TrEMBL record:
<dbReference type="GO" id="GO:0016740">
    <property type="term" value="F:transferase activity"/>
</dbReference>
<keyword id="KW-0808">Transferase</keyword>
<dbReference type="InterPro" id="IPR016181">
    <property type="entry name" value="Acyl_CoA_acyltransferase"/>
</dbReference>
<protein>
    <submittedName>
        <fullName>GNAT family N-acetyltransferase</fullName>
    </submittedName>
</protein>
Amino acid sequence: MTELVFRKAEEKDIPRLVELNIRLKRLNEEFDPLFKTRDDIAETSKKYFAEAIKSPNSVVIVAEN
């Protein structure tokens, strides 16, 4: 069995976080006809995660094995 390690996200994690966020939003779009993914989702997500990782008011956790 693979052991998962949870840790605080770092800047190096942003590309993968953006990719996963885009996949999630596109999946939501498939099931909810009222939900539309923005054209600038990659840029918006990158900015969001960069700010959240640095913010003392946010916690971004990643899991890796």
